[in-house]
Design a protein that fits this description.
It is a single chain. By secondary structure, the protein is an alpha/beta fold. The chain has six helices and eleven strands. The strands form two sheets. A nine-stranded mixed beta sheet has the order 1-3-6-7-2-8-11-9-10, sandwiched between helices. The chain has a two-stranded antiparallel sheet with strand order 4-5. A hairpin with a 4-residue loop joins strand 6 (68-73) and strand 7. Helix 1 packs across helix 5 (191-204) and helix 2 crosses helix 4 (159-171). The longest helix has 19 residues, at 213-231. 37% of the residues are buried.
């Protein structure tokens, strides 16, 4: 199985931080990636394609677009891998290896993956989202300690973040996985959990200047709508 990378433009990205934005069930990675791309106005520098990717063409501004790509800003030293589809299990290992190989080849500093720790409704107070982190190597774990992010002691992860952590450990490459508690809101995107993850990314990348206020405003509106529907079940769509 091959994943091809078609370069659109060259950027000097040594020392950059790479964000894994491949879609997952929690939607946190997609929200984080799309918010960074849009709020930082990142340029698309490469296209990702594979015979094993779904046959999708996205249309924006009357133009076709591949469903997966790489976006970056050389001055801000940030790179985002983004997909508009959730990869099947057979693709996970190959995508993770592609991200890690690309980051190493371009002499990037670290990879950040994101995800959710699902908790039941009674498992947390309203709008409380505890943050946890996992580092592939000691350097990454020290970064989490500096940020005072609680490190996950036991448990297991799945998907691309899991493969990035394992491969990063083997290759001695810094991978940090940021996990926010989430109730998944019955399939609705947990935007506040994504904002909590972005808070940590903003602290790890203080020179980038990530403005989270618009995302928190959107998150408040989404959570208020969800709470309203839960309190008035007769008004929910059938």
């Amino acid at each position: 199985m091959n994943i091809d990378i078609y370069k659109l433009r060259d950027l000097k990205l040594n020392g950059a931080t790479v964000i894994d934005g491949f879609s997952s069930a929690s939607m946190i990675s997609s929200i984080v990636a799309n918010y960074l791309i849009n709020s930082l106005d990142l340029d698309q520098i490469s296209i990702l394609d594979s015979d094993d990717f779904p046959a999708i063409s996205l249309i924006y501004g009357s133009k076709p677009k591949y469903p997966a790509g790489i976006f970056a800003d050389g001055d801000k030293n940030i790179v985002v891998f983004l997909s508009e589809f959730t990869p099947g299990q057979q693709l996970v290992r190959y995508i993770a290896n592609t991200i890690l190989a690309w980051a190493a080849e371009n002499e990037c500093k670290r990879i950040i993956a994101t995800g959710a720790l699902t908790v039941p409704e009674e498992g947390r107070a309203h709008k409380e989202h505890k943050m946890f982190g996992v580092g592939s190597v000691d350097r990454a774990r020290r970064d989490l300690e500096k940020m005072e992010i609680r490190q996950l002691k036991t448990g297991y992860l799945t998907g691309i973040p899991a493969m990035l952590l394992n491969s990063g450990m083997r290759a001695n490459f810094d991978v940090i996985c940021l996990l926010a508690e989430s109730q998944m809101n019955n399939g609705m995107p947990d935007t506040i959990a994504a904002a909590k993850v972005l808070e940590v990314i903003a602290r790890l990348l203080p020179k980038v200047g990530i403005d989270l206020e618009p995302l928190y405003e959107e998150a408040e509106m989404i959570e208020d709508w969800i709470n309203e529907q839960q309190q008035s079940p007769s008004r929910m769509f059938r």
